[in-house]
Amino acid sequence: MPPALVSAADAAYYAGRPVGTIWRWASEGRIGRYGSGKSVRYNVFELNKAHRDEYTGELLEPGKPPQLPAEARAA
Predict the structure, then answer these.
(1) What pLDDT, on a 0 to 100 scale, did the predictor assign at position 71?
(2) Contact between residue 28 and residue 66 where contact means Cβ atoms under 8 Å apart
(3) Which of 38, 41, 68, 71 could disulfide-pair with 5, CB 3.0 to 4.6 Å?
(4) pLDDT of 29 above 80
């Protein structure tokens, strides 16, 4: 399946996490980073979807963090 690339803000909304968490997960190697500079994108298929209220869109539970690679250490 080809990647579905989105901005950090869109990835953060999808996962129910702050943008800084998306950046940290990418630096830890939990998710891939595609492009460079202001044009960096993230593959939404590498993220776990947040649970939101279907009527209001209110965040009920953030998505679980992606698995940390065996060779990496968490920040």
Answers:
(1) 77
(2) no
(3) 41
(4) yes
